[in-house]
Amino acid sequence: MAQQETTNDLLVEPSHPPPVASSQTEVDEATSKMKRKGMKPRSAVWDHFSKFVDGSGTQKGKCNYCYKEFFCDPKKNGTTALRNHMFACIKNPHVMTTRQSQLYLQPSSSIQEGGGSHCGTLNTWNFNQERSRRNLAKMIIVDELPFMFVEGEGFKEFMEVTQPKFRIPSRWTVSRDCYDLYMEERKKLKNYFQNSNQRVCITTDTWTSLQRINYMCITVHYVDDNWTLHKKILNFCPITSHKGDDIGMAVESCLLNWGIKRVFTVTVDNASSNDVAIAYLKKKIVGWGFSILNCKYLHMRCIAHIINLVVVDGLKETNVSVKRVREAVRYIRQSPARLQKFKSCCEMEGIESKSSLCLDVCTRWNSTYLMLNVAQKFENAFDRYATIDPCFKFDLQSSDGLPDSLDWENVRRLVDFLGHFYDLTLRISGSRYVTSNIFFNEISSVDCLLQEWQGSNDVELACMGERMKVKFDKYWGDPDKMNKIVYIAVVVDPRYKLEFMEFALSTVYGKEKGMELAKKIKLTVYELFDEYKKTYQAEHDVVAM
C-alpha cells in the first residue's frame, strides 16, 4: 500500500497540458525545434585542418599547410590520420620534426688577423635523445660531477626550460652510459696502438693514500701522424707495494693489456725502487723486439720532481721572515671577523688587489711561494691592522714577532727567487705541448741562478743557494749521468742545432769538458739515426713485399 502511494506521488500530472497541434505544419515546426543543435568540432586537429564535403558527399579534411586531403567521416574514419599527419607535416611551423634541422649561430671568441673578432659560425641542429644522453655522460666525466647530479631539482627545471623533449635518465643509467663511453673510447685507442705501430713515452707516478693504500697512475704520451701531441691515462690502479719489481710488473701488465710494445722512454720519480722497476722493464721491452738501442735511453728522471727536491732542500731551514709572515696570515684567517677587519684596512690603504690571503703547507714549497706572493701585496694593510687590533701584536710577539720592513724586503727577494722555480715547474709540466726541447735550457738557467745566489751578500740567501746547489749537483752536476735525450732534443730543435749545443756546454761545463761532451752527443745523434734508419727500412721492406 505504501509502495503504491509513493508511485502515485512520483507520477504527478502536469499543471498545463501540452498544446495539441492544429495542423501538419505546426507538427514539423515543433519537430525541428526538438532536433539537437550541431556541435563545434572539439578535436585540436581542426586548428590545422579545414573540413569540407567533396562532390560525392564524403567528408574530408584538408591540411592548412601542405593542402593534403584525408577522409574524416566521424563514423568511419575519425581523426587519427589527421593527427598523425599534423605531427609529421614538414610545412607545419608549429611542429619540430627530427628530420628537420634548425639553423643556429655558434659564437666564436677567435680573433681575426685584422684585429676584429669572428661573430661565429652558422650550423644546423636537431634534437636527438641518444646523442644528448651521450653528451650528458661526457659532461659528467669531464666536469667530475656525481651521477646523482641528473636527479637534482635544479637540473630538472633547467632541462624543462631548455629542452622539454629530453627524457632525463636516472643516475644508474648515467653510470652505465659513462662506462659504455669509457669502453668505446678504450676500444678505439687500443685499436689505434695495435694498428699504427705507434712509439710512445710512458710516465708513472705512485703514492700512498690516507687509508694506507698504494696507488699508481700510468700515462702515455705520443705524437700522431698529424704531429699532434696526445696524453692518455692508461691505468689508475692500486698496487701491492712500492717495491721496484711490483711497479715494473704493474707497468708491464698495463702495456701488454693495451698492446703497446714500442716504448721509447719511461719517466719516473727519483727513488731507488724506480731504478729497480726500470731495470725490470728494460729486460721485458728488449725481449719484445721493438726497443731503440736496447733501451739505452729508456730511463728518464722526472725534472719537475728534481726541482721540487732542490727547492725543498733549500727551504728546510726557513728564515724568520717567512715564519713571521706565516703567523700573521694564520692569525687573520682564524675568524671571519678578522678577515673583514683586514679587508677594511686594505680599503683604507687603497689596496685594490683581488687576491686573498692563503696559508701554506710547510711540506709544499709552491704553497709557501703563493702565500708570500700574496702577502707582500698587503704589507701596508698588515701595519694598519696591527694598530687597530691589540691582540694581533700581543699574540705574534709571543712567537716570532710582527713582520717589519726588513722582513718584507726579505720576503720580496725570496718571492722573486722562488718565482723562477714556480714558473719553471709550470713550463716543464705542460702536457699539451712538447717540453723535451726546453729541458736543457731550463736546467742551465737554474744552475746559473744558484751560482748567483751563492755569491749573494745576504747570508741566509747565500746559505740557501749553497744547500740547493749541492742537491742540484747530485742529479745534474755530472752530465754523463744524465739521459742524453735531454741534449738530443736541443740538437733536433731547428732554433738551436748542434752548434748551439757546443757553445752552451762549453759555457756551463768549461771549454774542454764541454767540447768532449759535445762529441759524445754528436755520436749519439748518429747512433740514433742509424737505429731508426734500420728499423723503418726493415718495416718498409716488409710492406713492399
Automatic annotation (TrEMBL):
Entry annotated with the keyword Transcription: yes
Swiss-Prot/TrEMBL keywords: DNA-binding, Metal-binding, Transcription, Transcription regulation, Zinc, Zinc-finger
Segments forming domain BED-type: 40-101
Source species, domain of life: Eukaryota
UniProt-annotated stretches for the region Disordered: 1-40
UniProt-listed SMART domains: ZnF_BED
PANTHER family hit by this protein: ZINC FINGER BED DOMAIN-CONTAINING PROTEIN 4, ZINC FINGER BED DOMAIN-CONTAINING PROTEIN RICESLEEPER 2-LIKE
Protein name: BED-type domain-containing protein
Biological source species: Hevea brasiliensis (Para rubber tree)
